[in-house]
Amino acid sequence: MQTNINHHWQRFTLKQKLSRYSVYLVLVIALVQSVQSVEVIPEFFYDAPEQMADMFSRMWPMEWSYYPLSVHDAIIETLNIATIGTLLTLFIAVPLALMNASNITRSVWSQWIARFFLVSSRSVNSLVWALLFVAIFGPGVLAGVLAIAFRSVGFVGKLLAEALEEVNMGSVEAIRATGASPTTILFKGYWPQVLPAFFSIVLFRWDINVRESAVLGLVGAGGIGVVLSDSMNLFQWQRVSIALLAIFVVVILAEILVVNIRKKLI
Q: Which tens digit of pLDDT belongs to each residue from 138-156?
């Protein structure tokens, strides 16, 4: 059985052409303006390969004896920051997700309030959050945990709210028709349907937080970043290389762990 599909080709109207060309023109102007504002110095590009080779030569051989002295404990601290920060995120993000989901919260004001906090969380970089909390609580792990938590709230809350809005309302309405309480409707109607998405979101965010927590120490928020910053400031490049290798290995192992857990749970 053959199906004939007739394609009807139509030229762009003058208005459509002008709109397309206007977009292209704006992009070109933006690109030219950006290149001019960067003020690239060509001489820095010419000797970049030489400088890079010199830096790598200073990093080798790695100072393996430095790993048990400082790097190992700093890596464990980094994982603790990422894990505790992710768990703390849930206490803030879940209520905001419930407030933001239009099929759960009917109040427009509640939705806008939740949306404000979710957008605010995503709009501030984790390093900026870390600088803020270091200024408030001083350098250390606490500032790193709070920075990770407040940065993750927007990500987890937004995706969880979207998952809640996509549930099958048939089962929810059936439970509501029995006269069940709102809490029962939430845990019996919504929660079983969003459970796979919830675990996926949390695992994915923890994986991201492991990477972000590795650099928070550059501003004094604890973790391997402190070791990396101190080694760079003292020009101890062989220690820098072992710290970078440790970060790379931990990030790869975290990625493998998350993938395997998601395969078993989802």
A: 888 888 899 999 999 988 8
Burial of 193 (0-12, 13-18, 19+ CB in 10 A): middle
Q: Which residue has the tokens 């790993």?
A: 67
Angle at which helices 224-233 and 72-100 cross, to 10°: 130
Global pTM value: 0.77
pLDDT tens digits, 192-234 = 888 888 888 888 888 888 888 888 888 877 778 788 888 888 8
Max CA separation in the chain (angstroms):
76
pLDDT at 1: 45
Report the alpha-carbon distance of residue 248 to residue 224 in Å, rounded: 12
Rg (CA), the chain: 25
Q: Which two tokens stand for residue 226?
A: 């402190």
pLDDT average, residue stretch 169-173 = 78
